[in-house]
Each structure stands twice: as C-alpha cells, then as structure tokens.
Design goal:
Layout (H helix, E strand, L loop, with lengths): L1 H7 L1 H10 L3 H7 L4 H14 L1 H20 L5 H20 L12 H8 L2
Helix pairs in contact: 1-2, 3-4
C-alpha cells in the first residue's frame, strides 16, 4: 500500500509509513494477527500524528546528515532510531511484562554448605 500511495502522492506514502510503523512491534510483542496489528497501529498513530511527524522529520534530517559524513554518523543515528521507536512504542502501547517470584529451597541451600 505504501509503494502504491508513494507513486501516486508522496505525502500519502509518508503518512502510511508513519501510520503502519508500529505494526511489526505489535505483532511480535502483543502477538496480534497482522490485520489487527495494522488496524491498531493505524488508530493509535492517528491519535498522536503531529508528534510522530516531528520525530520522523528529525530522524530524516539525521539520516540526511549521515550521508554527508559518508555514513560515519550512522553509528549514532541508528541506535537513536531504535531507542526512539522503542520509547514511543512503550508510551503508546505499554509493555506486557510478567514477573514470577519463586522462593529459594532452604534444604538445597543448607545441604550445599554442609561439610
């Protein structure tokens, strides 16, 4: 869809790229079906479209400056991209973490120290 939209109207292609940017993260972390992940990403990004456009403009400028340094600045730009995307995902969708605590077995620890 992005390729066809980009061929017709480039701003529409950029919008779709931003709107569907969280799809793969939703599939992996939330284990949504691909179509549900696309719809969820689309709805969530539409609510926060202006900040996301600003972030993508900043990233575009950073990648353009990386070209000027013959790719050397990608050492800083690529980690910044992935960290920023992770932070945005965490703020928009949250992260499902399950913590389980187990009590240590006292007899196993005591028999280990017996001489």
């Amino acid at each position: 869809m992005q390729t066809m939209a980009n061929a017709v109207f480039s701003i529409l292609g950029l919008y779709l790229a931003i709107a569907f940017s969280m799809t793969t993260l939703l599939i992996c972390e939330k284990q949504l079906q691909p179509l549900n992940a696309i719809l969820t990403s689309f709805r969530a990004v539409n609510r926060k479209i202006l900040p996301l456009v600003g972030f993508n403009l900043i990233l575009g400028v950073l990648f353009f400056l990386s070209i000027a340094t013959m790719g050397l600045a990608l050492i800083w730009t690529l980690p910044f991209l992935f960290n920023l995307k992770g932070i945005i995902y965490r703020e928009m969708f949250g992260i499902g973490i399950e913590v389980s605590v187990t009590e240590p077995d006292d007899e196993a620890g005591a028999s280990h120290f017996d001489a």
